[in-house]
User: What shape does this take?
Amino acid sequence: MIDFLKTYIARKKIKRIFFTLGIIIILLYLGFKVEFDFIRLFKGMPDMFALFERMLNPNLSYSGEVFEKLLETIQIAIVSSILGVILALPFSLLVAENITPNKLVAKILTAVFSFFRTIPGLIWAALLVSIFSIGKFSGIVALTIIAFLMSLKLFREYIESINENQLNSTISVGANSMQVLRYCVLPHILELSVSVFFNVFETNIRSATILGLVGAGGIGQIMWRDLNHLRYDNLGTLILILFLTIFLIDLISLFLRRMLKKSRIKFKSLESYRKYKSSKLIYIPLIIIGLFVLVFKSFDISYDRLLLGLEQGNQIISRMIRMDFSYYSKLIEGIKESFFIAIFATIVGGFFAIILSYFTAYNTSPNRAVSLILKGIINILRTFPPIITAIIFFRGVGPGPLAGAMALSIYTTGVLTKMYSEVLESSEKNIQDSVLVVGTTSLQSYRHGLVPHTLSTFVSLMLYRLESNIRNSTILGVIGAGGIGTALSMNITWRNWEKVGFLLLGVSLMVIAIDKFSNYLRKNI
Amino acid sequence: MRRLSLILLAVLMTISLIGCTPKKEEVITMGFVPMRDGDKLIESVEPLTEMLSKELGVKVEGFTATNYVGVVEGLGSGQVDFGFIPPFAYVLANKESNAQVILTALNKDLEAKYRSQFIVRKDSGIKSFADIKGKKVAFVDPSSTSGYLFPGAHLIKEGIDLEKDIQYVYSGGHDKSLQLLLNGDVDVATTFVDVRDRYEKDFPDANEKTEILGYTEYIPNISVTIRGNMEKDMQDKIKNALLNIASTDEGKSLLKDLFNMYGFTEATDADYDIIRTTAETMDVDLKAAE
Assistant: This one.
């Protein structure tokens, strides 16, 4: 028996050494690939700080204009997020592997949507301008597509994680597949849809930068203008207001989720429950009708114009399908760089997030004040648009993938810490307690209790970030910070749709491969 | 806990290990920001940097970017030594870090300037700038020189109040402006000369359906700008290297084929004053926060 324990300990030790060694090797390799250079980074510090300082000097007289544009953006983001989430609900039932009526349909739809998810905002903009001209409507459509694809993925993963037993138990009492949906799946995802909505809403406000490109105005347009005029004081104002907005959204989301939880408490009498039921029957259709009216109101183009647009959109798509394969050397080169930037950023971000989350989540943090301060810092990190952070780093370290990799690392750290600390906060208290009770310190209870328990969630959060980092890294190319973005945006400007189509295929193959790998990992951890 | 600190240590070691990679030999970094209204899609700057390396005897490394902000900041911090940047970007770089223009590229007609045009549909009934009042105009985007600054300033000079007399939209691209015009979404589009030929494949009927209402003032071509604190010696070297390349047959054809440049001519800061005054007319506040 003692021998057994000894070999166990020895094996564990060896395993640990290999694990650490593996991490070192991977980091070394990735660091080499993104041209990580500590000295270069250190030497660039003063220059980076000088630029950052200029943003710390917000131009408050400018806030009026920002506010106006922000309202426009919020309006568009709300409509499109609601639409996206509502559209995603039925589709998620089709694509989730465990409840789909047809496995093949699910597979095909998932592949199609994964492909769509990889298409950068720039392409959507080009297509939508062709079809609907510029204006608010194009903006709404663009963001609805983004919201739809994003919430579909979240819903699908959630439904697929529903316990098999739960489904079976519903089936075993004689429920047909519709009833399974109604009583087993829907209650789960309706609850989830509120938090998905806020998640998507926040992303939409952030991705509103593409709205500027489809001429829908909003905050994206003035952000690009200020950036292009090097008005960092105005940018500072903009980011500050954006920060406050996102902070506010967070608060509202928290408040609403709490309220929803409360409203599920028992009713005083059967009477009041019935009343509640019947009022639900009235106000839910009303809300839906109201939404449709809202959408159709922004639909301000004539039928002829729509036909003309569809024809032009069709032309673009058919040219994209006739891919120009001779472009592969450019594709490989760009995609490799984008890939390494994204992987580096995800691993570094994940590493810092797992440490920072301990201090940030209020149930693990040694000190309430520390938790609050860190929460503030993390919100700032993730409000800073990666493109602006990339410019700061670019100033310090010059061209090449390093600037982009650092910018995305910082952004990923912020987003992951926020998400993971929320996972920690919602975890059961007794997990932590059960470890604490054997006399460990709080840090040990985190390390041996909470982390192993939530590791699979953490891994799936990380892989989700990896995918979005790849998409983000296509934007970084625009300023020369490496990746496939330069080739992509140049060919869009030149309307070389055959090449654009080929580049897109490359990007999406990469993302789909990562998606597959992510599913594999999730199932094996 | 021990494992955590072990990993932490490992990462720190890794960082310092990579940090100690042997220092690279001295290189000159060149940034290339193609003008969106340029005539050539720049795929690679490598052929040019190779020629420059030979001329200068120092390794030149180049990169392309589609937006100039990174390059302008790089010129300011010394991370980028010189760059091909659009005229408006030069004015910004000059203001920020005293970067200096040394050369301007020449176009097919051996001119160092270009201009943009106003186009309208033939059946629109717009015959003069006065007719634009009350119509819809498409600009490219608020930071485009040929798609906003110059055309906008031109309209102001023609007595049109941009905020009161016309409705305008930003289309996001010269091609999109043309498309909006053809589709009847706007009545006037402002683009480079000549957007209709460049995108003939996409809009084959553009030439027959639209006509040119007028041209803006001339805009200086893409600039070769060096960072503000470069020694005079090096400045001259780079300038001469580029001029030399443009004078050889091999260099000439390379510049023509890859960048659609037909040579260079010396340029001074004063050549770009027109950008500054136009920006002022358009109320673009270039004041950098001190």
In short: Residues 25-112+220-281 of chain B form a domain with the D-Maltodextrin-Binding Protein; domain 2 fold (CATH 3.40.190.10).
